[in-house]
Design a protein that fits this description.
By secondary structure, the chain is mainly beta. The protein has one domain (6-110): Jelly Rolls. It contains one helix and ten strands; from the N terminus they run H-E-E-E-E-E-E-E-E-E-E. A six-stranded antiparallel beta sheet has the order 1-2-3-10-5-8, with no helix packed on it. A four-stranded antiparallel beta sheet has the order 4-9-6-7, with no helix packed on it. A hairpin with a 5-residue loop joins strand 6 and strand 7. The chain is globular. The structure holds (2~{S})-4-acetamido-2-azanyl-butanoic acid. (2~{S})-4-acetamido-2-azanyl-butanoic acid binds next to strand 2, strand 3 and strand 10.
Protein backbone atom coordinates (compact mmCIF):
# COMPACT_ATOMS: atom_id res chain seq x y z
CA UNK A 1 0.00 0.00 0.00
CA UNK A 2 1.16 3.50 -0.80
CA UNK A 3 0.02 6.25 1.56
CA UNK A 4 1.17 9.83 1.15
CA UNK A 5 0.01 13.38 1.69
CA UNK A 6 0.21 16.35 -0.66
CA UNK A 7 2.63 17.86 1.86
CA UNK A 8 5.05 14.99 1.08
CA UNK A 9 5.14 16.05 -2.59
CA UNK A 10 5.23 19.84 -2.40
CA UNK A 11 8.77 21.11 -3.02
CA UNK A 12 10.07 17.78 -4.35
CA UNK A 13 10.94 16.80 -7.95
CA UNK A 14 7.36 15.54 -8.32
CA UNK A 15 6.06 19.08 -7.75
CA UNK A 16 6.26 20.45 -11.30
CA UNK A 17 5.74 24.21 -11.54
CA UNK A 18 5.27 25.34 -15.14
CA UNK A 19 4.06 28.58 -16.63
CA UNK A 20 0.36 28.78 -15.79
CA UNK A 21 0.05 25.50 -13.89
CA UNK A 22 1.55 23.56 -11.03
CA UNK A 23 1.17 19.78 -10.97
CA UNK A 24 1.82 17.81 -7.81
CA UNK A 25 2.35 14.21 -8.97
CA UNK A 26 1.02 11.94 -6.24
CA UNK A 27 1.03 8.57 -8.00
CA UNK A 28 3.16 8.03 -11.07
CA UNK A 29 4.69 5.26 -13.18
CA UNK A 30 6.94 3.88 -10.44
CA UNK A 31 3.86 2.82 -8.45
CA UNK A 32 3.19 0.17 -11.12
CA UNK A 33 -0.59 0.53 -11.14
CA UNK A 34 -1.09 1.60 -14.76
CA UNK A 35 -2.24 5.17 -14.15
CA UNK A 36 -1.00 8.33 -12.47
CA UNK A 37 -2.78 10.83 -10.23
CA UNK A 38 -1.93 14.52 -9.96
CA UNK A 39 -3.27 17.36 -7.86
CA UNK A 40 -2.93 20.24 -10.31
CA UNK A 41 -3.38 23.98 -9.93
CA UNK A 42 -4.34 25.95 -13.03
CA UNK A 43 -3.25 29.49 -12.22
CA UNK A 44 -5.81 32.32 -12.26
CA UNK A 45 -6.56 33.91 -15.62
CA UNK A 46 -4.42 31.46 -17.59
CA UNK A 47 -5.30 29.69 -20.83
CA UNK A 48 -3.76 26.44 -22.08
CA UNK A 49 -4.04 24.50 -25.31
CA UNK A 50 -3.35 20.79 -24.81
CA UNK A 51 -3.65 17.59 -26.81
CA UNK A 52 -2.56 14.48 -24.96
CA UNK A 53 -2.15 12.36 -28.06
CA UNK A 54 -0.17 9.73 -26.12
CA UNK A 55 -2.40 9.59 -23.05
CA UNK A 56 -5.98 9.49 -21.88
CA UNK A 57 -6.68 12.04 -19.14
CA UNK A 58 -9.66 12.43 -16.82
CA UNK A 59 -9.86 15.65 -14.81
CA UNK A 60 -12.08 16.38 -11.79
CA UNK A 61 -12.37 19.96 -10.56
CA UNK A 62 -12.34 20.37 -6.78
CA UNK A 63 -11.75 24.15 -6.48
CA UNK A 64 -12.26 27.24 -8.61
CA UNK A 65 -14.02 27.97 -11.88
CA UNK A 66 -13.16 28.14 -15.55
CA UNK A 67 -14.04 26.51 -18.85
CA UNK A 68 -12.89 24.02 -21.44
CA UNK A 69 -13.33 24.33 -25.20
CA UNK A 70 -13.34 21.21 -27.35
CA UNK A 71 -11.43 22.36 -30.42
CA UNK A 72 -13.00 19.64 -32.62
CA UNK A 73 -16.51 21.01 -32.07
CA UNK A 74 -15.92 24.54 -30.77
CA UNK A 75 -18.19 23.78 -27.80
CA UNK A 76 -17.23 25.41 -24.49
CA UNK A 77 -18.21 23.83 -21.17
CA UNK A 78 -18.17 25.65 -17.83
CA UNK A 79 -16.04 24.08 -15.09
CA UNK A 80 -16.77 24.38 -11.37
CA UNK A 81 -16.14 22.09 -8.40
CA UNK A 82 -17.71 18.73 -9.24
CA UNK A 83 -17.20 19.04 -13.01
CA UNK A 84 -15.34 16.14 -14.62
CA UNK A 85 -14.04 15.91 -18.16
CA UNK A 86 -12.58 12.82 -19.79
CA UNK A 87 -10.39 13.22 -22.87
CA UNK A 88 -11.40 9.81 -24.20
CA UNK A 89 -10.52 10.76 -27.78
CA UNK A 90 -7.23 12.52 -26.97
CA UNK A 91 -9.29 15.64 -27.58
CA UNK A 92 -7.40 18.82 -28.40
CA UNK A 93 -8.76 21.48 -26.06
CA UNK A 94 -8.30 24.88 -24.49
CA UNK A 95 -8.52 25.07 -20.72
CA UNK A 96 -9.09 28.44 -19.02
CA UNK A 97 -9.12 29.38 -15.35
CA UNK A 98 -11.22 32.40 -14.49
CA UNK A 99 -9.46 35.56 -13.41
CA UNK A 100 -9.23 35.94 -9.66
CA UNK A 101 -9.12 32.27 -8.67
CA UNK A 102 -7.11 29.22 -9.52
CA UNK A 103 -8.70 25.92 -10.49
CA UNK A 104 -7.61 22.85 -8.56
CA UNK A 105 -7.97 19.62 -10.52
CA UNK A 106 -7.40 15.95 -9.77
CA UNK A 107 -5.92 14.50 -12.99
CA UNK A 108 -5.64 10.79 -13.84
CA UNK A 109 -3.45 9.73 -16.77
CA UNK A 110 -3.26 6.41 -18.58
CA UNK A 111 -0.54 5.39 -19.34
CA UNK A 112 0.96 6.84 -16.17
CA UNK A 113 3.23 9.87 -16.16
CA UNK A 114 6.77 9.39 -14.92
CA UNK A 115 6.18 12.37 -12.65
CA UNK A 116 8.38 14.91 -14.46
CA UNK A 117 6.57 15.67 -17.72
CA UNK A 118 6.01 19.11 -19.16
CA UNK A 119 4.16 19.68 -22.43
CA UNK A 120 5.94 19.62 -25.78
CA UNK A 121 5.19 22.28 -28.41
CA UNK A 122 2.05 20.40 -29.53
CA UNK A 123 0.55 20.33 -26.04
CA UNK A 124 1.33 16.65 -25.45
CA UNK A 125 3.43 14.69 -23.00
CA UNK A 126 5.95 12.21 -24.42
CA UNK A 127 5.46 8.54 -23.71
CA UNK A 128 7.66 7.26 -20.89
CA UNK A 129 9.17 4.49 -23.07
C1 LIG B 1 -5.75 19.88 -16.31
C2 LIG B 1 -4.49 19.82 -17.10
O1 LIG B 1 -4.41 19.22 -18.13
N1 LIG B 1 -3.48 20.52 -16.59
C3 LIG B 1 -2.18 20.53 -17.15
C4 LIG B 1 -1.23 19.76 -16.28
C5 LIG B 1 -1.49 18.29 -16.33
N2 LIG B 1 -2.83 17.90 -16.22
C6 LIG B 1 -0.71 17.61 -15.24
O2 LIG B 1 0.41 17.21 -15.52
O3 LIG B 1 -1.25 17.51 -14.13
Amino acid sequence: MIVKHLDDVIGTAADVDAEGWNSRRLIYKDAGVGYSVNDTIIKPGTEHEFEYRNHFETVYCIEGEGEITDLATGVTHAIRPGTLYCLNRHDRHVLRANKGSHMRMVCVFNPPLTGREVHDQTGAYALAD
